[in-house]
Design goal:
Elements lengths: L1 H16 L1 H25 L8 H9 L1 H14 L5 H15 L9 H14 L8 H8 L6 H22 L5 E6 L5 E20 H7 L6 E3 L2 E18 L4 H25 L6 H24 L12 E2 L2 E2 L4 H4 L7 E5 L2 E2 L3 H9 L4 E7 L5 E7 L10 E2 L14
Length: 396
């Protein structure tokens, strides 16, 4: 029992020295810095702090990673060191594009399946590299296909659960030249996943690696960092609704891929279909979302009032339970249609504010709150103002 515990702890230790862990940290820090820079450029204020993406990455995928580990180890998916290196290399190359959506399991594992069929036919002349490449022939097609299907479904679950948590408002120009609002979700989830590696090849390359024995076979248990990236820009609907709809589509496609993955146990050649369906299908989902989103503009100036484009966390607006996408029609009894009218009406009563708000269901409600020193200028709401086809974003 003690030896098992020591082996597991050593396997976990690999996670903390894996280069991808620190690469993922680097990516989220860069994404957070760029997001804050854009937010300040649009609104002269940041919405979320620059490490919000990093904090979400380090916490949101832990439990999901445990569930995936139980599935991969329980089913008996075995990935040789060569396969682990290949997945890591693909992840690194796709991550260097700084487009997190390419870190979807569809692209990473889809490419891994296809390359595992091609690379063994080539020799590099380097003994160590050729050894790793030769190990790719040891991977059963069901292992890669099954792992792809599991992580594909997990991607959909994470999108539904967290995809809109750090949705960042931004400003764009419509096809008619008017300024409109949009939301962008750009996230990366870290999944610590236990995988089994074949013992003999591992011990030949890394003699110090602890092995677990099951009957006549030995395996190395290793905790690896898997990353799942996501990006979606929404301007035609509420970001939460749009992101959840995408998540449901991803899960549906993942279910179909899982069915195909089962067939690879009897028909290994079907793994090609699994890889191509994952890559092409995920790309088509992205294209379809963009096309449908272009049909309508949700965050634009309206005659009925002001649409809330964004709300700063911990601001009075958040404490008043106002939500992105709601329509403010009156402030302190005065009808407002522009940021300037909103600001003017707000100044009429410096100690108290009463808002008439139309919620997402089209129902009118009253929201009121006492204002304290310094708060009447910064309720924490962001709007779009497009007079003379120019944008004057203000935090009010």
């Amino acid at each position: 029992m003690d030896s098992w515990l020591i082996d597991v702890l050593k396997g976990i230790g690999v996670f903390f020295i894996h280069p991808l862990l620190y690469f993922f940290l680097f990516l989220t820090l860069v994404m957070g810095y760029n997001r804050v820079k854009k937010e300040r450029g649009f609104f002269h204020v940041r919405i979320f702090d620059s490490i919000s993406e990093t904090k979400l990455m380090l916490t949101a995928g832990l439990f999901v990673g445990l569930i995936v580990s139980l599935l991969t180890v329980g089913v008996g998916f075995v990935i040789p060191v060569g396969g682990v290196v290949l997945i890591g290399a693909i992840t690194l190359l796709l991550g260097l594009t700084f487009r997190l959506r390419f870190l979807s399991p569809a692209y990473v594992l889809g490419l891994a399946i296809l390359l595992s069929m091609v690379l063994p036919q080539w020799k590099t002349g380097n003994t160590f590299v050729d050894l790793l490449i030769s190990e790719l022939t040891l991977i059963h097609p069901t292992t890669y296909s099954g792992l792809l299907a599991i992580l594909f479904i997990v991607e959909g679950v994470l999108i539904i659960k967290d995809g809109s948590r750090l949705s960042s408002p931004r400003l764009e120009t419509s096809k008619r030249g008017r300024m409109i609002g949009a939301h962008a979700s750009n996230l990366l989830w870290l999944l610590p996943v236990f995988v089994l590696l074949p013992g003999a090849p591992v011990s030949s390359i890394f003699p110090w690696w602890p092995l677990l024995s099951f009957g006549q076979q030995s395996f190395a248990l290793c905790l690896l960092p898997f990353g799942i990236g996501f990006f979606q820009k929404t301007r035609g609907s509420l970001p939460r609704e749009a992101v959840r709809f995408t998540g449901k589509r991803v899960i549906a496609l993942g279910m179909f891929i899982a069915i195909l993955a089962v067939t690879t146990y009897w028909l290994p050649v079907m793994s090609i279909a699994v890889a191509l369906l994952a890559i092409i299908g995920r790309e088509l989902l992205t294209i379809q979302q963009r096309v449908q989103d272009d049909d309508y503009t949700y965050f634009s100036r309206r005659d009925q009032g002001l649409v809330i484009l964004g709300i700063i966390p911990k601001s009075p607006a958040e404490k008043m339970a106002l939500q992105v996408g709601e329509l403010i029609t009156k402030v302190n009894g005065k009808q407002v249609k522009s940021v300037e009218e909103f600001y003017y009406a707000l100044q009429k009563n410096g100690a108290f504010v009463k808002l008439e708000v139309v919620d997402h269901n089209g129902e009118l409600r009253l929201v009121q709150r006492a204002l304290y020193d310094g708060e009447h200028h910064e309720l924490g709401m962001l709007f779009v103002s497009d007079e003379k086809l120019a944008v004057q974003e203000q935090v009010v």
